[in-house]
Amino acid sequence: MEDGMKYPDWNEIRDGMWAAKLDFPMIDDETPTFMGCRHVTRKDELEGADVVVIGSPYVSSSSDEWAGVGKEHWLAAPKRVRQQSIRYQSGYIQDFRFNVFDYLHVVDYGDADIPPEANIGTLNPDLILTAQAAVERKVNDALEVGALPVVIGQNSPCGSYAIAKCVAEHADGDVGIVSLDAHWDIFPQCPQTNDPRIAGGFCWLYKTMEFHDNVHARNLVEIGPRGMLEASDMVEEILARGALFFSGWDVRRQGVEAVCKGLDHAYNGTRAVYAHFDMDVLGGAGPAPGDILGELAEPIGLSDYECIRIAHELGLRGVRGFSFICIPPGSPVAYRVIVYIIMYLLAGKAIRTRSHGRTGESR
Questions:
Q1: DSSP string, 172-233
Q2: pTM as predicted
Q3: Domains and CATH numbers, the chain
Q4: Residue 307: CB atoms within 10 Å
Q5: 10 Å Cβ neighbour count for 188?
Q6: If you average pLDDT over residues 285-290, what whole number do you get?
Protein backbone atom coordinates (compact mmCIF):
# COMPACT_ATOMS: atom_id res chain seq x y z
CA MET A 1 0.00 0.00 0.00
CA GLU A 2 2.79 2.46 0.82
CA ASP A 3 4.10 2.20 -2.76
CA GLY A 4 0.90 3.94 -3.85
CA MET A 5 1.36 6.79 -1.38
CA LYS A 6 4.32 8.61 -2.99
CA TYR A 7 2.66 11.96 -3.33
CA PRO A 8 5.02 14.79 -4.38
CA ASP A 9 5.91 17.40 -1.81
CA TRP A 10 4.76 21.00 -2.19
CA ASN A 11 8.08 22.26 -3.54
CA GLU A 12 7.93 19.79 -6.41
CA ILE A 13 4.42 20.93 -7.26
CA ARG A 14 5.16 24.62 -6.78
CA ASP A 15 8.28 24.55 -8.94
CA GLY A 16 6.72 22.42 -11.65
CA MET A 17 5.91 23.71 -15.11
CA TRP A 18 2.24 24.22 -14.32
CA ALA A 19 2.52 26.48 -11.28
CA ALA A 20 5.99 28.04 -11.32
CA LYS A 21 4.95 31.30 -13.00
CA LEU A 22 1.66 31.78 -11.19
CA ASP A 23 0.93 33.91 -8.14
CA PHE A 24 -1.77 32.79 -5.75
CA PRO A 25 -2.80 33.27 -2.12
CA MET A 26 -1.52 30.80 0.47
CA ILE A 27 -3.44 29.47 3.47
CA ASP A 28 -0.23 28.18 5.03
CA ASP A 29 3.28 27.33 3.84
CA GLU A 30 2.13 24.28 1.86
CA THR A 31 -1.50 25.09 1.08
CA PRO A 32 -2.59 27.43 -1.71
CA THR A 33 -6.20 28.47 -1.93
CA PHE A 34 -8.51 26.48 -4.18
CA MET A 35 -7.86 27.57 -7.78
CA GLY A 36 -6.01 30.62 -6.45
CA CYS A 37 -9.26 32.19 -5.20
CA ARG A 38 -9.32 34.85 -2.52
CA HIS A 39 -8.54 33.61 0.98
CA VAL A 40 -10.98 34.78 3.67
CA THR A 41 -10.76 34.16 7.39
CA ARG A 42 -13.78 36.01 8.82
CA LYS A 43 -17.50 35.73 8.26
CA ASP A 44 -17.83 39.40 7.30
CA GLU A 45 -15.45 38.76 4.39
CA LEU A 46 -17.93 36.29 2.88
CA GLU A 47 -20.38 38.99 1.81
CA GLY A 48 -20.95 38.79 -1.94
CA ALA A 49 -19.52 35.27 -2.27
CA ASP A 50 -21.41 32.77 -4.41
CA VAL A 51 -19.32 29.75 -3.39
CA VAL A 52 -17.29 29.10 -0.24
CA VAL A 53 -14.69 26.32 -0.24
CA ILE A 54 -14.05 24.78 3.20
CA GLY A 55 -11.63 22.06 4.27
CA SER A 56 -12.62 19.39 6.78
CA PRO A 57 -9.53 17.32 7.66
CA TYR A 58 -11.04 14.66 9.91
CA VAL A 59 -10.54 10.88 9.99
CA SER A 60 -12.59 8.59 12.23
CA SER A 61 -9.97 6.10 13.33
CA SER A 62 -8.41 5.30 16.69
CA SER A 63 -5.32 3.77 15.03
CA ASP A 64 -2.65 5.10 12.68
CA GLU A 65 -4.60 3.77 9.69
CA TRP A 66 -8.08 3.99 8.28
CA ALA A 67 -9.32 1.34 5.82
CA GLY A 68 -5.76 0.01 5.67
CA VAL A 69 -4.19 3.31 4.57
CA GLY A 70 -2.09 5.62 6.75
CA LYS A 71 -4.25 8.26 8.38
CA GLU A 72 -1.92 11.09 7.33
CA HIS A 73 -2.80 10.47 3.66
CA TRP A 74 -6.53 10.81 4.33
CA LEU A 75 -6.05 13.94 6.44
CA ALA A 76 -4.02 15.62 3.70
CA ALA A 77 -6.90 15.61 1.18
CA PRO A 78 -8.08 19.24 1.61
CA LYS A 79 -4.50 20.46 1.24
CA ARG A 80 -3.70 18.21 -1.71
CA VAL A 81 -6.87 19.03 -3.64
CA ARG A 82 -5.96 22.70 -3.31
CA GLN A 83 -2.37 21.97 -4.37
CA GLN A 84 -3.52 20.18 -7.50
CA SER A 85 -6.00 22.93 -8.33
CA ILE A 86 -3.14 25.38 -8.79
CA ARG A 87 -1.96 23.62 -11.94
CA TYR A 88 -4.95 25.11 -13.78
CA GLN A 89 -4.34 28.55 -15.20
CA SER A 90 -7.87 29.90 -14.82
CA GLY A 91 -11.52 28.96 -14.44
CA TYR A 92 -11.94 28.75 -18.21
CA ILE A 93 -13.45 25.34 -19.04
CA GLN A 94 -12.99 24.39 -22.67
CA ASP A 95 -16.05 22.13 -22.68
CA PHE A 96 -18.33 25.11 -21.98
CA ARG A 97 -16.27 27.90 -23.55
CA PHE A 98 -16.49 30.28 -20.60
CA ASN A 99 -14.62 31.17 -17.42
CA VAL A 100 -16.54 30.12 -14.32
CA PHE A 101 -15.05 33.01 -12.35
CA ASP A 102 -16.57 35.53 -14.74
CA TYR A 103 -19.95 34.58 -13.28
CA LEU A 104 -19.27 33.33 -9.75
CA HIS A 105 -17.39 34.86 -6.85
CA VAL A 106 -15.57 31.93 -5.21
CA VAL A 107 -13.61 32.26 -1.97
CA ASP A 108 -11.59 29.84 0.14
CA TYR A 109 -12.52 29.91 3.83
CA GLY A 110 -9.63 27.66 4.89
CA ASP A 111 -10.10 24.59 7.06
CA ALA A 112 -12.56 24.09 9.89
CA ASP A 113 -10.92 24.44 13.30
CA ILE A 114 -11.01 20.73 14.11
CA PRO A 115 -9.16 20.03 17.36
CA PRO A 116 -6.03 17.91 16.73
CA GLU A 117 -7.02 15.48 19.48
CA ALA A 118 -10.12 14.53 17.46
CA ASN A 119 -7.80 12.89 14.91
CA ILE A 120 -5.70 10.89 17.38
CA GLY A 121 -6.39 8.31 20.04
CA THR A 122 -9.79 6.89 20.83
CA LEU A 123 -13.02 7.84 19.10
CA ASN A 124 -14.38 10.04 21.86
CA PRO A 125 -18.00 11.03 21.07
CA ASP A 126 -17.65 14.46 22.64
CA LEU A 127 -14.53 15.20 20.56
CA ILE A 128 -16.33 14.01 17.44
CA LEU A 129 -19.20 16.39 18.17
CA THR A 130 -16.71 19.21 18.75
CA ALA A 131 -15.09 18.51 15.39
CA GLN A 132 -18.51 18.37 13.73
CA ALA A 133 -19.48 21.70 15.27
CA ALA A 134 -16.31 23.30 13.88
CA VAL A 135 -17.40 22.38 10.36
CA GLU A 136 -20.95 23.52 11.05
CA ARG A 137 -19.75 26.98 12.03
CA LYS A 138 -18.09 27.59 8.66
CA VAL A 139 -20.93 26.00 6.69
CA ASN A 140 -23.50 28.11 8.54
CA ASP A 141 -21.45 31.23 7.84
CA ALA A 142 -21.61 30.45 4.12
CA LEU A 143 -25.33 29.65 4.13
CA GLU A 144 -26.15 32.82 6.04
CA VAL A 145 -24.71 35.00 3.27
CA GLY A 146 -26.52 32.97 0.59
CA ALA A 147 -23.41 31.17 -0.68
CA LEU A 148 -22.95 27.52 -1.61
CA PRO A 149 -20.60 25.75 0.83
CA VAL A 150 -18.34 23.15 -0.82
CA VAL A 151 -16.65 21.05 1.87
CA ILE A 152 -13.57 18.95 1.09
CA GLY A 153 -13.57 16.33 3.83
CA GLN A 154 -12.65 12.71 4.43
CA ASN A 155 -14.89 11.09 7.05
CA SER A 156 -18.30 11.40 8.63
CA PRO A 157 -19.80 13.22 10.39
CA CYS A 158 -17.51 16.14 9.54
CA GLY A 159 -17.69 15.72 5.77
CA SER A 160 -21.32 14.65 5.48
CA TYR A 161 -23.81 15.05 8.32
CA ALA A 162 -22.32 18.38 9.42
CA ILE A 163 -23.27 19.85 6.04
CA ALA A 164 -26.62 18.04 5.74
CA LYS A 165 -27.58 19.30 9.21
CA CYS A 166 -26.86 22.92 8.33
CA VAL A 167 -28.77 22.68 5.05
CA ALA A 168 -31.76 21.10 6.81
CA GLU A 169 -31.77 23.76 9.53
CA HIS A 170 -31.64 26.60 6.99
CA ALA A 171 -34.29 25.20 4.65
CA ASP A 172 -37.86 26.48 4.80
CA GLY A 173 -39.25 23.12 3.73
CA ASP A 174 -38.22 19.60 2.82
CA VAL A 175 -34.66 18.78 1.78
CA GLY A 176 -33.64 16.31 -0.92
CA ILE A 177 -30.38 14.39 -0.83
CA VAL A 178 -28.28 13.09 -3.71
CA SER A 179 -25.68 10.65 -2.43
CA LEU A 180 -22.90 9.01 -4.44
CA ASP A 181 -21.31 6.22 -2.43
CA ALA A 182 -20.16 2.62 -2.49
CA HIS A 183 -22.13 2.16 0.75
CA TRP A 184 -25.54 3.33 1.94
CA ASP A 185 -24.41 4.44 5.44
CA ILE A 186 -27.80 3.55 6.89
CA PHE A 187 -26.93 1.67 10.06
CA PRO A 188 -29.40 2.82 12.75
CA GLN A 189 -26.48 3.63 15.07
CA CYS A 190 -22.75 4.31 14.79
CA PRO A 191 -20.96 1.00 15.52
CA GLN A 192 -17.65 2.78 16.14
CA THR A 193 -18.96 4.65 19.18
CA ASN A 194 -22.37 3.11 20.00
CA ASP A 195 -23.42 6.66 20.82
CA PRO A 196 -26.86 7.64 19.46
CA ARG A 197 -25.70 11.25 18.97
CA ILE A 198 -23.04 10.38 16.40
CA ALA A 199 -23.89 10.40 12.68
CA GLY A 200 -20.76 8.49 11.73
CA GLY A 201 -19.57 6.79 8.59
CA PHE A 202 -21.85 3.78 8.88
CA CYS A 203 -24.97 5.74 9.78
CA TRP A 204 -24.81 9.43 8.77
CA LEU A 205 -27.60 9.10 6.18
CA TYR A 206 -29.93 7.20 8.51
CA LYS A 207 -29.23 9.70 11.29
CA THR A 208 -29.89 12.67 9.01
CA MET A 209 -33.39 11.36 8.35
CA GLU A 210 -33.85 10.50 12.03
CA PHE A 211 -32.68 13.86 13.38
CA HIS A 212 -34.38 16.17 10.86
CA ASP A 213 -38.12 16.17 10.23
CA ASN A 214 -37.70 17.82 6.83
CA VAL A 215 -35.39 15.13 5.38
CA HIS A 216 -37.15 12.04 4.03
CA ALA A 217 -36.23 8.90 2.13
CA ARG A 218 -38.84 9.84 -0.48
CA ASN A 219 -36.47 12.59 -1.65
CA LEU A 220 -33.27 10.54 -1.51
CA VAL A 221 -31.40 9.53 -4.66
CA GLU A 222 -28.70 7.00 -3.83
CA ILE A 223 -26.17 6.30 -6.59
CA GLY A 224 -23.37 3.79 -6.65
CA PRO A 225 -23.73 1.09 -3.95
CA ARG A 226 -23.33 -2.37 -5.42
CA GLY A 227 -22.61 -5.99 -4.74
CA MET A 228 -22.91 -7.78 -1.43
CA LEU A 229 -21.95 -5.00 0.98
CA GLU A 230 -25.29 -4.28 2.66
CA ALA A 231 -27.80 -6.02 4.90
CA SER A 232 -30.97 -6.56 2.89
CA ASP A 233 -33.36 -5.42 5.62
CA MET A 234 -31.73 -1.98 5.90
CA VAL A 235 -31.68 -1.35 2.15
CA GLU A 236 -35.22 -2.62 1.65
CA GLU A 237 -36.47 -0.40 4.49
CA ILE A 238 -35.12 2.77 2.87
CA LEU A 239 -36.43 1.74 -0.54
CA ALA A 240 -39.87 1.02 0.95
CA ARG A 241 -39.81 4.56 2.35
CA GLY A 242 -39.49 5.92 -1.16
CA ALA A 243 -35.78 6.29 -1.97
CA LEU A 244 -34.65 6.05 -5.60
CA PHE A 245 -31.65 3.75 -6.07
CA PHE A 246 -29.17 3.45 -8.94
CA SER A 247 -26.65 0.75 -8.11
CA GLY A 248 -23.26 0.68 -9.80
CA TRP A 249 -24.75 -2.03 -12.01
CA ASP A 250 -27.72 0.21 -12.87
CA VAL A 251 -25.47 3.12 -13.80
CA ARG A 252 -23.59 0.91 -16.24
CA ARG A 253 -26.75 -0.60 -17.77
CA GLN A 254 -28.89 2.55 -17.95
CA GLY A 255 -26.23 5.17 -18.58
CA VAL A 256 -25.39 8.36 -16.75
CA GLU A 257 -28.00 10.44 -18.59
CA ALA A 258 -30.76 8.24 -17.18
CA VAL A 259 -29.25 8.77 -13.74
CA CYS A 260 -29.23 12.54 -14.27
CA LYS A 261 -32.90 12.43 -15.22
CA GLY A 262 -33.57 10.46 -12.03
CA LEU A 263 -32.25 13.36 -9.97
CA ASP A 264 -35.78 14.80 -10.26
CA HIS A 265 -36.60 12.54 -7.31
CA ALA A 266 -34.53 14.72 -4.97
CA TYR A 267 -36.08 17.96 -6.24
CA ASN A 268 -39.77 17.06 -6.39
CA GLY A 269 -41.54 18.96 -3.60
CA THR A 270 -38.34 20.04 -1.84
CA ARG A 271 -36.99 23.49 -1.04
CA ALA A 272 -33.29 22.57 -0.88
CA VAL A 273 -30.99 19.79 -2.04
CA TYR A 274 -27.78 18.57 -0.43
CA ALA A 275 -25.26 16.58 -2.49
CA HIS A 276 -22.86 14.13 -0.88
CA PHE A 277 -20.01 12.60 -2.90
CA ASP A 278 -18.27 9.75 -1.08
CA MET A 279 -15.46 9.08 -3.50
CA ASP A 280 -15.08 5.40 -2.66
CA VAL A 281 -17.89 5.25 -5.22
CA LEU A 282 -15.08 5.16 -7.79
CA GLY A 283 -13.79 1.79 -6.61
CA GLY A 284 -11.26 0.89 -9.29
CA ALA A 285 -13.12 2.63 -12.12
CA GLY A 286 -11.54 6.05 -11.63
CA PRO A 287 -8.21 7.35 -12.91
CA ALA A 288 -6.16 5.63 -10.17
CA PRO A 289 -6.02 1.98 -9.06
CA GLY A 290 -8.80 0.97 -6.71
CA ASP A 291 -6.23 -0.49 -4.33
CA ILE A 292 -5.28 3.01 -3.15
CA LEU A 293 -8.66 3.02 -1.38
CA GLY A 294 -7.60 0.07 0.76
CA GLU A 295 -10.58 -1.78 2.24
CA LEU A 296 -12.99 0.64 0.54
CA ALA A 297 -12.25 -0.53 -3.03
CA GLU A 298 -15.08 -2.37 -4.76
CA PRO A 299 -15.75 -3.51 -8.36
CA ILE A 300 -18.36 -1.87 -10.62
CA GLY A 301 -17.41 1.61 -9.50
CA LEU A 302 -18.52 4.80 -11.19
CA SER A 303 -16.11 6.44 -13.58
CA ASP A 304 -14.59 9.87 -13.07
CA TYR A 305 -16.70 11.14 -15.99
CA GLU A 306 -19.94 9.85 -14.45
CA CYS A 307 -19.19 11.62 -11.15
CA ILE A 308 -18.25 14.85 -12.93
CA ARG A 309 -21.33 14.69 -15.16
CA ILE A 310 -23.67 14.20 -12.20
CA ALA A 311 -22.02 17.12 -10.38
CA HIS A 312 -22.55 19.35 -13.41
CA GLU A 313 -26.22 18.39 -13.55
CA LEU A 314 -26.58 19.25 -9.88
CA GLY A 315 -25.04 22.64 -10.57
CA LEU A 316 -27.56 23.22 -13.35
CA ARG A 317 -30.46 22.32 -11.05
CA GLY A 318 -29.13 24.09 -7.95
CA VAL A 319 -27.80 22.73 -4.66
CA ARG A 320 -27.62 24.30 -1.22
CA GLY A 321 -24.65 22.29 0.08
CA PHE A 322 -22.02 20.00 -1.46
CA SER A 323 -19.33 17.89 0.19
CA PHE A 324 -16.82 15.08 -0.25
CA ILE A 325 -15.49 12.26 1.86
CA CYS A 326 -13.22 9.25 1.18
CA ILE A 327 -11.15 11.02 -1.48
CA PRO A 328 -8.71 8.38 -2.83
CA PRO A 329 -5.44 9.05 -0.98
CA GLY A 330 -2.04 9.69 -2.50
CA SER A 331 -2.83 9.97 -6.21
CA PRO A 332 -2.38 13.43 -7.79
CA VAL A 333 -4.81 12.60 -10.58
CA ALA A 334 -7.45 11.46 -8.05
CA TYR A 335 -7.20 14.85 -6.35
CA ARG A 336 -7.58 16.46 -9.78
CA VAL A 337 -10.86 14.57 -10.18
CA ILE A 338 -12.13 16.46 -7.12
CA VAL A 339 -11.05 19.74 -8.71
CA TYR A 340 -12.96 18.81 -11.88
CA ILE A 341 -16.06 17.79 -9.92
CA ILE A 342 -16.09 21.16 -8.14
CA MET A 343 -15.42 23.19 -11.28
CA TYR A 344 -17.98 21.37 -13.44
CA LEU A 345 -20.50 21.72 -10.61
CA LEU A 346 -19.75 25.44 -10.60
CA ALA A 347 -20.00 25.58 -14.39
CA GLY A 348 -23.54 24.27 -14.04
CA LYS A 349 -24.21 26.84 -11.34
CA ALA A 350 -22.80 29.58 -13.58
CA ILE A 351 -25.09 28.54 -16.42
CA ARG A 352 -28.01 28.58 -13.99
CA THR A 353 -26.97 32.02 -12.74
CA ARG A 354 -26.81 33.37 -16.30
CA SER A 355 -30.31 32.03 -16.96
CA HIS A 356 -32.05 32.93 -13.70
CA GLY A 357 -29.94 35.64 -12.08
CA ARG A 358 -28.62 35.45 -8.56
CA THR A 359 -31.93 35.96 -6.75
CA GLY A 360 -33.16 32.56 -5.63
CA GLU A 361 -30.45 30.94 -7.73
CA SER A 362 -29.30 28.44 -5.08
CA ARG A 363 -31.93 25.83 -4.44
A1: SS-EEEEEE-SS----SS-TTT--TT---TTTHHHHHHHH-TTEEEEEEEEE---TT-S-HH
A2: 0.96
A3: 2-356 (3.40.800.10)
A4: 26
A5: 13
A6: 90
